[in-house]
Amino acid sequence: MDVHSIRLGSANSYVVRCEKGFLLIDAGQPHHVDTFKQECSQMNIPVRSTMSYFKRPTEMAILTKEFYSGCTLLLGQKLLGKKLVRALGDDILSGIISEAEVYFGIDDSASHASKGMTRRNKIMFGPPGIAYVYFVYGMHYMLNIVTEKKGVPAAILIRSVIPVQGIRRMEILRGNKGRALTNGPAKLCQALAIDKSLNGWDVTRGETLWIEDFADIEPEFIESGPRVGVQYADRKDRDALRRFWINKECFHELTIA
User: Fold this and answer.
1) How far, in Å, CA of 25 to CA of 33, rounded?
2) 92/85 Cα distance (integer angstroms)
3) Can you name the residues that pair with 55 across neighbouring β-strands?
4) Rounded CA gap, 175 and 226, in Å?
5) Is residue 59 part of a domain?
6) What's the mean pLDDT when you consider all of the chain?
7) Is residue 256 part of a domain?
8) b/e string for 7-42 if b means 16 or more Cβ within 10 A?
9) Residue 114 confidence (pLDDT)
10) Are residues 36 and 83 in the same domain?
11) CA angle 114-116-121, nearest 5°?
């Protein structure tokens, strides 16, 4: 599999060669499909279908409370390909969500909500579309987005993003670069300056921290597996396939720089 970097106008776009075709990732403004095809032709890259795996909306709409009020298990997959955005001073930092974990209900022994409502987890019992940010191991922050209707404790942990905008600022915040920049829940929080000050933040407001409807990933390119670091949970919850990520056959060490 090859990764080709091409320039389309002012936007950097990336094509990943897959067995079934080609995947387009646009790191800038939407571009004209004919221009994309022409650029690929000049590089001797045959294009079967430019948008078959990575469907783009016409506008980068901010995800609404209605979106987050849906089934958490499905939302864990629907969030893949969406763009997490952080406004930090004059900078915009963003990344494509590439991995997420689902936590749902008081019967999920891996969830913070399994012991009932507490001061720490009460946000999980609130309305959808709210950021639930908690501190672990005395050093790391984790970003979750609350889902389902009010009173149903559910949230999705954002585990990994692919950097798109503000990468230099992310590198400074992280003190790192390359693949290690945002490929973990604590890493992405550090890179995007997400901490407890954003706990309870309404991500549907379109200010400071939000998620845009960047792309839809086809089901065939979504993998699932057990959640990470939940050894304390009951066996059924440890083994439950509630972690979702974009198939490596699509991204294959793809970085946007």
Assistant:
1) 12
2) 7
3) 216
4) 30
5) no
6) 81
7) no
8) ebeeebbbbbebeeebbbbbbeeebeeeebeebbee
9) 92
10) no
11) 90
- Residues sharing a CB contact under 8 Å with residue 210, sequence separation 6 or more, in sequence order: 62, 63, 85, 203, 204
pTM, two decimals, is 0.78
Q: Answer whether residue 49 is part of any domain.
A: yes
Residue 51 has pLDDT above 50, yes or no: no
Residue where a domain terminates, one of 13, 35, 54: 54
* 108 token code pair: 């999920």
CATH number at residue 157: 3.10.300.10
Residues 191 and 110 in one domain: yes
Given this model, what pLDDT does residue 138 score? 81
Amino acid at 238: R
Task: Name the least confident of 27-36, 158-167, 199-208.
Answer: 27-36
- Dig out the tokens for 231 from the structure: 């050894």
Check: CB of residue 100 under 8 Å from CB of residue 155. Answer: no
Of 31, 54, 77, the residue that ends a domain is 54
Are 42 and 146 found together in one domain? no
Q: Decide: 210 and 62 in contact? Cβ < 8 Å.
A: yes
Task: Report the C-alpha gap between 11 and 184 in whole angstroms.
Answer: 26
Q: How many structural domains are present in the chain? A: 2
Instruction: Examine the domain organization and report whether 96 and 41 are in the same domain.
Output: no
- Are 26 and 84 in the same domain? no
Helix (H, G, I), strand (E, B) or coil at 51: coil
Domain membership of residue 28 as a residue range: 3-54
Q: Which residue, among 106, 83, 103, has the nearest Cα to 95 in the 3D structure? A: 83
